[in-house]
Write a structure and sequence with these properties.
103 residues, alpha+beta, Alpha-Beta Plaits, 3 helices, 4 strands, 25% helix
Amino acid sequence: MDAPLRKLTLVCPKSIEPTLLDTLEGLTPELPGYTSQDGHGRGASMDLASTAEKVKGAMRIFTVIMVLPESGIGAVLEAVRQACPRRQISYWIEPVLDFGRLK
């Protein structure tokens, strides 16, 4: 039986995007793929770094979304933890009911 699929979402400060992407690209085995996007995050625990972020009340963030076997999530999180040791990286894991490609 194949390992169940999970959706892993990582949200981090925009400033560490290059390090995070380098880390994900260097994983072995390779990730099956992921989606990334820029955005703005708000919340009481955010450490707003720049004056613009403080005025806006939001931090520039970078989000990565991937679907992978549940068994691979621990390795991804540990690699990110080692490469990007910041408390402001959030993640969550969701079950995936189905995954495929439209042909």
